[in-house]
Amino acid sequence: MVVATGFFDGVHIGHRLVIDQLVKAARNRGDESMVVTFWPHPRTVLQQEARNLRLLTSMPEKEALLKGLGVDRIEVIRFTREFGALTTREYFSEYLIGRYGARAIILGYDNRMGSDACSSAGVCKVAQDMGLDVIWTEKVTSEHGIDVSSTKIRAELERGNVTRAAEMLGYDYSLFGVVVSGEQIGSRVLGFPTANMQLYEPLKFIPANGVYLVKVNTVGRDFYGMCNIGNRPTVRQGNARTIETNIFDFDEDIYGLDIRLTFLRRIREEIRFTSFTQLKAQLARDKFYCKSLIGQMC
Questions:
Q1: What is the pTM of this model?
Q2: Which residues touch 258 (CB under 8 Å, ≥6 apart)?
């Protein structure tokens, strides 16, 4: 068994290099490829200040991405304080070798693991001492020369920069949930009916408030639309944060059905207007601009 281990949040282009090496090495050796990952995120267990950490991928999304890259097996270990107390050597002995039969391991340039917080060089030495073959991967940077990490991707999403996040992810960021009922102000007052989303994974990272051009998948088909993330300040102050999408050229009842939003471009920040008339006019401009962007993509 050839193994890569880590949390792999987002399965970004840095992770993809590791997975590519994993799959190739396993095939060359006539062996299986395995990713050993964890749930929940170690920081949410070991650091109280990280209780508000939000993730780029739910576990089902992560598993689908890894399978799509050709990984044969995925094992998920429940991360507890007891598990987090294992040293690198104990983790390798009990899990990677003892439980999963690892014979080789793929290491990234910045791999750290174990309660002893072994550096990449330390992890390499432990692995070799225990009879594992070690295969190294290089550091990955984005097109703009940024060292890629899940933390940096979250920072871009927090700024609403979904295009820069996509560059580091290697794909467009998305949210997955169910359509729930709202106040119907969009359809009854503004003439822009919206699908209100409730996320299936409450720990999923939500991009910055604002209006976005999105691709929408629902009822088994793809559409375009414009999504507003925010607190709807024009409606009233103190609203809870919502994810509302006006789906273009669509008029079906989808309450209770799945919906996936894929973020293509941020159009503008969320704005408080003095009247619904001003808001309606702005939404018309937003829709016109979104459709012009779609025309450029096609």
A1: 0.91
A2: 176, 177, 178, 179, 218
